[in-house]
């Protein structure tokens, strides 16, 4: 049986949270919501302007696809 996840204090700042997550999952990627929405739009072939990102579905991308889309999205102005 694995060890339980480390407990975080009730109040944690973003930097502490990011450090804790990176310690647990080193391959985790952190990005602003705007970038995440653009990646989802690109994956679903939605227009970048005036398209709402679906919120009722989960999207799981293979790491190679995520890298491919992130390279394109981060190159946008």
Structure, explained:
Helices cover 45% and strands 0% of the residues. With 77 residues, it is mainly α. The chain is elongated and about 40 Å long. The termini are far apart. The mean pLDDT is 78.
Strand content: under 5%
Task: Give the total of beta strands.
Answer: 0
Continuous helix count: 3
| Helix residue percentage | 40-55%
The sequence of SSEs as H and E is: HHH
Mean pLDDT: 78
Shape: elongated
Rg result: 16 Å
Biggest beta-sheet profile: none
Summarize the SSE layout with pairings.
Blueprint: H1 14-24, H2 33-43, H3 63-75
Helix pairs in contact: 2-3
Short description:
It is built from three helices and no strands. The chain is mainly alpha-helical and 77 residues long.
List the keywords:
mainly alpha
């Amino acid at each position: 049986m694995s060890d339980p996840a480390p407990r975080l204090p009730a109040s944690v700042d973003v930097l502490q949270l990011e450090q804790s997550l990176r310690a647990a999952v080193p391959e985790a990627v952190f990005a602003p919501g705007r970038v995440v929405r653009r990646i989802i739009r690109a994956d679903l072939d939605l227009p970048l302007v005036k398209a709402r990102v679906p919120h009722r579905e989960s999207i799981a991308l293979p790491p190679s696809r995520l890298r491919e889309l992130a390279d394109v999205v981060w190159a946008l102005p």
